[in-house]
Amino acid sequence: MSPAKPPAVHVVTDSTASLPSGDHPALSVVPLHVLVGEEAFFEGVEISPDDVAHRIGAGERVTTSQPTPHALVSAYEAAARAGARSIVSIHLSGDLSGTVHAAALAATRSPVPVRVVDSRTVAMGLGFAALAAADAAAAGATLDEVARRALAVADSSRAIFMVDSLDHLRRGGRLGVAAATLGTVLGVRPLLAVRDGRIEVIQKVRTRSAAVDRLIHVAVDSVGRRAEPELAVHFLGDDAAATEVADRLWDTTGVRAAVTPVSAVVGAHAGPGVLAIVVADRAP
To answer: What angle do CA 279, 181, 93 make, to 5 degrees?
Structure first.
């Protein structure tokens, strides 16, 4: 029996999608970089989310950077060599990283046409979109259809999260100083969300346990508004709280959540103790 013919459309995403382990024949992941002091690491290859949690806990300075256009061109060339005739390249919000802009530059050097999609989200908001696009590609969808599927699922997603400290987001420029001050001056623990590609404070509560309850409440409300929802719960470090949240969501909604660590890059900006829920529409 001859090997299966590769999909005509291939999907490329980046490592901030925080995807569960496993390969997809129509999907490739390009890693971002984690910088610890003067050392640079490919996330998911040379450094893990647990490593980042440990390094931050040890007081080391952890920063991040986007993939180079060359790295993205290499991914496009590899897909073309494998038989792809076009590519959908979907990435985390352009307001949070320059990755999507690097992809646009790389697309001009690709051996096959590339459609670049700014997901306007991150973590499994991006991950669900990339997987839906890859499924569509594997089923024989056209370039336009795959790109539309990616954007539709990304647009449907809602990512809400809480952190133990807003300092990491503030230092990384992902949250304004005024919003970051809420967690220190007023003694409140904000809930945050990704809205139109940016991180915003959506609610304020006093304790971590109350924040978890509100996080679940907001997610349950979002699930209830959807015909076929998908769920993911993210964490950095200890997964016990994430597993408990996933169990509570299952008990309340009947939807099983994927439990997966946030990527090392996302973890570097959110810090240890981050707990996130992503809700999205299942792709038709």
So the answer is: 35
